[in-house]
Specification:
By secondary structure, the chain is an alpha+beta fold. Helix content is 30%, strand content 35%. A hairpin with a 2-residue loop joins strand 6 and strand 7. It comes from Gluconacetobacter entanii.
Length: 169
């Protein structure tokens, strides 16, 4: 399968919001619970516009060949201060119908390329400690576990630990 990866534009707002809501319901590994995301299209337009205006933040979308609906994304939010502008915190999500096809690897590769070109020297993320598939993807992409946040999340009433992972570019 051929995957196209490109930066999100404001015109993608509706499809990005729909994809993120879909992901919220498909997996217990994303931050939002199903139906918790209260954002509307106008708010998504504003969020994408803010990301595009920042020189150290981006929303990259993955599209399956011949479609105009995103099947995955990686969002990088750069630090806001001089001391951490070189750090990008990322979130990644891939629709269940398209996992295991190399999209995560492609998104993280495109993310690293974008980051280097925009003065980001460090990427970081958090991942639930039992999300083995994601951890393998991150390690394959050069991330290392730097620490553990104990009881960082409550998922279905159960405390869940997270790893903090980082990659120096």
């Amino acid at each position: 399968m051929t995957i196209e990866i490109r930066e999100a534009s404001v015109s993608d707002s509706r499809s990005v919001l729909e994809m993120k809501r879909k992901l919220d319901g498909q997996t217990r590994f994303m931050m939002f619970e199903p139906d918790e995301r209260s954002m509307d299209v106008a708010a998504m337009q504003s969020e994408i516009a803010q990301l595009r205006a920042a020189d150290n933040s981006v929303l990259l979308l993955a599209f399956a060949q011949g479609t105009d609906v995103p099947v995955g994304y990686v969002e990088v939010t750069g630090g806001r201060f001089r001391r951490n502008r070189h750090v990008g915190s990322l979130v990644i999500g891939i629709c269940a119908t398209h996992t295991g096809m190399g999209i995560g690897t492609a998104l993280l590769g495109a993310c690293a390329d974008w980051a280097r070109a925009h003065g980001i020297g460090r990427l970081e993320l958090t991942v639930m400690v039992h999300n083995d598939r994601a951890i393998r993807l991150y390690e394959k992409s050069g991330f290392v576990v730097e620490g553990r946040r104990v009881a960082a999340l409550m998922v279905d009433g159960v405390a869940v630990d997270e790893y903090v992972m980082g990659r120096i570019l």
